[in-house]
Amino acid sequence: MSVAKIVLFYVFTPLSDPEAVRLWQHALAERHGLTGRVIVSSQGINATLGGDVADLKQHVKVTKSYAPFHGADFKWSTGTGDDFPRLSVKVRDELVTFNAPDDIVVTDQGVQGGGQHLKPGALHRLVDARGDDVVFFDGRNAMEAEIGRFRDAVVPQTDTTRDFLAELDSGKYDHLKDRAVVTYCTGGIRCEVLSVLMKNRGFTEVYQLDGGIVRYGESFGDAGLWDGSLYVFDNRMHMEFGEGVESLGTCVECGVSTPLFVNCANEVCRAQFLRCEECTAAGRHPSCGACEPATV
Ligand SMILES: [Zn+2]
Ligand SMILES: [Zn+2]
């Protein structure tokens, strides 16, 4: 019987020949009929792949046999078998595009100078010990946080990861520079870079959630400090950590809780906004808030 899964992994490690790694990863994934997205750079590898669990396990096994990737942390979740449109394996300048390649120093020990990694249990111990002195800092795009986030988290105004530098340099978050700041993102990779940028800009006590929201959800489900749905970049669009979990987002038309983003009907806008299944089926509110008055 075929069981569809999705696997996420990343490794920050110096790669002298990213193109060779790209060719190898592409051939390997193709041979196993996998789909998804793999980025390779001189800083390492970042992959999200979907397919049959037996095929994914073969891919993982061979990937781990390459010494620089031996220590990779593989995160598994349930897929549908149709989670990605195709296979894309690319070489980029940065593993995650913060447009800050000069801030990031990668050795075979990983990214240098980042925030202290906290596993989910250690995060709870920190919060128990320090209480309100701990502040969560969302390392994702603001849209992702609309449907789920850590309790009382600071959510920077970012459309893409490239917006973080300007946000940090704006002074808006300077009052957090002496607080215990915990950055978090989907699987941890964005925080590896973001926490360096923050420390380089005077944030004195920076932690990063090890394994991201995915690992946290596996440990604490919906019973911890996480609220709502997790936005994911595949056809699933969102996932929850328990039965009956409600998204923090609400339908722009009727106000019910929904984790479902749709694209604005205006072809030149295509902004994503929240609209529930029922309103979508009924054809209500085709355009986003910004376009609605002009086009309807
Ligand atoms: Zn609705
Ligand atoms: Zn629009």
From TrEMBL:
<dbReference type="Pfam" id="PF00581">
    <property type="entry name" value="Rhodanese"/>
</dbReference>
<dbReference type="GO" id="GO:0016705">
    <property type="term" value="F:oxidoreductase activity, acting on paired donors, with incorporation or reduction of molecular oxygen"/>
</dbReference>
<dbReference type="InterPro" id="IPR036873">
    <property type="entry name" value="Rhodanese-like_dom_sf"/>
</dbReference>
<dbReference type="InterPro" id="IPR022111">
    <property type="entry name" value="Rhodanese_C"/>
</dbReference>
<dbReference type="Pfam" id="PF17773">
    <property type="entry name" value="UPF0176_N"/>
</dbReference>
<protein>
    <recommendedName>
        <fullName>tRNA uridine(34) hydroxylase</fullName>
        <ecNumber>1.14.-.-</ecNumber>
    </recommendedName>
</protein>
<keyword id="KW-0560">Oxidoreductase</keyword>
<dbReference type="GO" id="GO:0006400">
    <property type="term" value="P:tRNA modification"/>
</dbReference>
<comment type="similarity">
    <text>Belongs to the TrhO family.</text>
</comment>
<comment type="function">
    <text>Catalyzes oxygen-dependent 5-hydroxyuridine (ho5U) modification at position 34 in tRNAs.</text>
</comment>
<dbReference type="InterPro" id="IPR020936">
    <property type="entry name" value="TrhO"/>
</dbReference>
<feature type="domain" description="Rhodanese">
    <location>
        <begin position="130"/>
        <end position="225"/>
    </location>
</feature>
<dbReference type="Pfam" id="PF12368">
    <property type="entry name" value="Rhodanese_C"/>
</dbReference>
<dbReference type="InterPro" id="IPR001763">
    <property type="entry name" value="Rhodanese-like_dom"/>
</dbReference>
<dbReference type="InterPro" id="IPR040503">
    <property type="entry name" value="TRHO_N"/>
</dbReference>
<keyword id="KW-0819">tRNA processing</keyword>
